[in-house]
Write a structure and sequence with these properties.
The protein has helices at residues 2-22, 53-61, 104-113, 134-144, 162-183, 199-204, 220-229, 252-263, 272-296, 302-327, 335-355; strands spanning 40-46, 70-76, 91-96, 120-123, 128-130, 149-151, 154-156, 195-198, 234-236, 244-246, 357-360, 363-366. It has 367 residues and is an alpha/beta fold. The longest helix has 26 residues, at 302-327.
Length: 367
């Protein structure tokens, strides 16, 4: 038993260690003052976001980017609350979502795509806020690199509660894995709240075909398809002025269903690395739980279980620290407590995602 647990945890440590190694391989990028010339269409799918959309649109109005070089398309996915567009000095329109698949968000992007007249598309979420140089940074990067898809960073705007900082640490680990993967030349994950690609590239990839039966994955499946076919055209933009900030959830039930929604697409990953890493991470969390209970029951020596727990805590903390330092100026909070809670939470999410149903935005989905 002890040997099996050590093997499992060493594999976990090596996998996370590789991501830590890859993280600094992606260098920080800053806008260089190049005159902007890229035209963008920002697509924002939304459902019942009347409270958040004015904040996002206000951020767009403060962008340091010529208003003739970007437009905004909001796609309403059967909202129950009402939202009216105020007057803005940039072009913004609302479309009603045309449902054709099991994925409301993919349908929303496809609905907007019919109206896109620019070369570049940027997707984000209604509950986000963006930096004033968000588009300028993208433009400067595009002008200096021959790319067709750009993944960017996402962080949380946290209050000083355990639930919020638990989510921030979790997201920091995911962002760290994302950046580390790209640093190793093996990008496998991204976030649709900050993703850019050309319309032509989307068409070359045949869009979301092949995974439109899954409710989630408008970002990851598209990225993995792009990496498989045109890896040289896909990159990660590691820039502080390109980070998108979103809101954490305020109750554990919503968080659980959100993570189930994220986890439900894992079995459909086309990336062998993504599948393998997901399995190793699941094994590491199960190993942590087994080591703890085996020690309590006296089945393995207490010192051995502490060594196993320490391995996981150290490698996790290193990756989270690197990522959190890039994502926010806020110091990490509740790291030790989160490290005890997370394996139970993550394992429950992973197992439930294989068999259970989940709710999101007032709808029920079956995995």
């Amino acid at each position: 038993m002890t040997l099996a647990l050590y093997v499992m945890m060493v594999m976990y440590g090596l996998a996370i260690g590789l991501l830590i190694y890859g993280f600094p391989k992606i260098k920080l990028f800053e806008p260089l003052g190049i005159s902007p010339k890229t035209k963008f269409t920002i697509i924002v799918p939304f459902r019942d976001e009347a409270e958040n959309l004015p904040l996002l649109l206000e951020c767009f109005s403060k962008l340091k980017y010529p208003v003739n070089l970007f437009e905004v398309i909001l796609v309403d996915d059967e909202s129950k609350d009402s939202f009216q567009i105020s007057d803005f000095h940039f072009n913004v329109s609302i479309l009603m979502n045309v449902r054709v698949s099991n994925s409301p968000k993919k349908d929303a992007i496809l609905t907007a795509m019919e109206r896109v007249n620019t070369n570049w598309i940027v997707t984000t979420d209604a509950d986000c806020v963006v930096h004033k140089n968000w588009l300028l940074t993208l433009d400067n990067y595009i002008q200096q690199h021959q790319v067709s898809m750009i993944s960017g960073a996402v962080t949380y705007d946290c209050k000083k509660t355990f639930l919020h900082h638990f989510q921030q640490l979790d997201l920091a680990s995911l962002q760290g894995a994302t950046i580390g993967g790209f640093g190793l030349g093996k990008g496998f994950m991204c976030n649709g709240a900050n993703l850019a690609y050309t319309k032509l590239f989307f068409q070359e990839l045949d869009g979301f075909s092949g995974n439109d039966t899954l409710a989630s994955g408008d970002d990851v499946f598209l990225l993995q398809k792009a990496i498989a076919q045109f890896p040289e055209k896909v990159c990660y933009l590691k820039a502080e002025s390109n980070i998108v900030c979103t809101k954490p959830l305020n109750d554990w039930r919503s968080l659980f269903y959100q993570r189930v929604r994220w986890a439900s697409k894992t079995v459909a990953y086309t990336s062998g690395l993504a599948k393998g890493l997901a399995l190793v991470v699941f094994g590491g969390n199960v190993c942590w739980i087994l080591a703890l209970f085996c020690s309590i029951l006296g089945w393995i020596p207490f010192l051995n279980s502490m060594c196993l727990l320490l391995i996981k805590f150290v490698v996790d903390s290193l990756l989270i620290y690197k990522s959190n330092r890039f994502l926010t100026t806020e110091r990490m909070r509740f790291l030790i407590l989160s490290s005890f809670v997370y394996p139970f939470f993550s394992t429950s999410v992973a197992l439930y995602s294989l068999f259970g149903k989940y709710e999101w935005k007032g709808r029920k989905f079956k995995n």
